[in-house]
Design a protein that fits this description.
Layout: E1 2-10, H1 14-32, E2 35-40, H2 45-51, H3 57-65, E3 68-73, H4 77-80, H5 90-100, E4 102-110, H6 123-126, E5 130-136, E6 144-150, E7 157-161, H7 166-181, E8 186-191, H8 197-210, E9 217-222, H9 223-232, E10 239-242, H10 244-258, E11 267-273, E12 279-283, H11 302-316, H12 319-334, H13 355-364
Parallel strand pairs: 1-2, 1-3, 3-12, 5-10, 8-9, 8-10
Antiparallel strand pairs: 4-5, 4-11, 6-7, 11-12
Length: 368
């Protein structure tokens, strides 16, 4: 198979972790006889500096023509200090999601036995956790209008509008139930129907979709209660389907179940198909640009490598290749190797690997 992939490394540690994922992918393609074609483009803060835009037109066109997109991270400290900037690095990822028409973000949260002590929660609570958080990506408060901050002291105001259509909610919930059918047959829908009209819409439509899947267990839960129960009894969840803002918060919280954001991949999918007939997707680790460690060679590339495994499975139908990568990561961790964000006081110094060494260790453990 010919794999045409757009590489958008972005800012901070993005280029470092994307490089290691591509190195792993090159080996996988060579072993299985696939042809890998990659093209790289700017996005985020580096794109603003070069072109004035977080998502240049050429970058979006490249992403739209590719079979899939591998994304690193965006964000630069200078923009954090200028909240009124017309262009912000985050506009790059938001624009990509809109431009690629990917409406569902899949964030698997798996607790590896080898990392059980990395979680701040007790082992007996997190052991065996395997959650898929399904986050709506193109609606809600991040995109609703009006959106503005205005006025002068002491009368400044700010507004963000949470807006959803029935079609947006229905397609996300249907994907949630389809995912659950291939997992453990349970969907939890998280909303704030007690205080938000949009939440009541989500709950009403979710019930209608649930009636189409009588073999899948369904439950409603307020988002704040879901946050609490995810820390109290994470194994009770299978698929959590929710709107954009709550999905962003819940998935970041869930990263602590696994011990580090450096372990969590993600896939953003829509209904669009690539030339192979599979879903065109945007794949990225959920961590940020991490400028405090940029260039030090210590960033954890595993979330990006695992995102690339999701790409093989969802955008190319290459499940065997994806399984091989996930097994290699599992074996690496079982062998006691750790990146800096995963090490504990008991981790021997010779078991702590930098970014490049971690990528090479995954390659060494690939079995086909």
């Amino acid at each position: 198979m010919e794999l045409n992939i757009a590489l958008l490394p972005g800012d901070g540690i993005g280029p470092e972790v994307v490089r290691e994922a591509v190195n792993v992918l090159k080996v996988v393609c060579e072993k299985h006889g696939h042809t890998l074609i990659t093209q790289e483009a700017l996005v985020g803060g580096c794109a603003i500096h070069a072109t004035g835009w977080a998502l240049p037109e050429d970058t979006l066109k490249l992403a739209q023509k590719a079979d899939a997109v591998l994304f690193g991270a965006v964000g630069t400290p200078e923009f954090d200090k200028d909240p009124n900037a017309k262009q912000r690095p985050e506009n790059g990822i938001l624009g990509l999601r809109k431009g690629l028409e990917v409406f569902a973000n899949l964030r698997p949260v798996k607790v590896y036995d080898a990392l059980i002590d990395s979680s701040p929660l007790r082992p007996e609570i997190v052991r065996g956790t395997d959650i898929m958080i399904l986050r709506e990506l193109t609606g809600g408060a991040y995109f609703g209008l009006p959106k503005e901050k205005k006025g002068e002291k002491p009368n400044r105001t700010g507004v963000d509008t949470t807006f959803y259509t029935e079609a947006e909610v229905r397609r996300l919930m249907r994907m949630g139930f389809e995912l659950a059918k291939g997992r453990r047959n349970k969907v939890t829908q998280a909303d704030k129907a007690n205080v938000m009209a949009s939440g009541r819409l989500w709950r009403e439509i979710a019930h209608e979709v649930a009636a189409e899947y009588p073999d899948v267990q369904y439950e409603d839960m307020y988002a704040d209660a879901c946050s609490m129960h995810m820390l109290r009894a994470p194994r009770s969840f299978d698929v959590i389907a929710t709107e954009n803002l709550f999905g962003d918060i819940l998935s970041d919280e869930a990263s602590m179940l696994a011990g580090s954001m450096g372990m969590l991949p993600s896939a953003s999918l829509g209904d669009g198909r690539n030339r192979h007939g599979f879903r065109r997707g945007l794949y990225e680790p959920i961590h940020g640009a991490a400028h405090d460690i940029t260039g030090k060679g210590i960033a954890n590339p595993l979330a990006t490598i695992l995102s690339m495994a999701m790409m093989l499975r969802w955008s190319f139908g290459l499940s065997a290749e994806a399984d091989a990568i996930e097994r290699a990561v599992d074996t690496l961790l079982a062998d006691g190797y750790r990146s800096g964000d995963l090490k504990s006081a008991d981790t021997p110094s010779d078991k702590v690997l930098g970014t490049r060494a971690m990528g090479e260790a995954v390659i060494e453990r690939l079995t086909f």
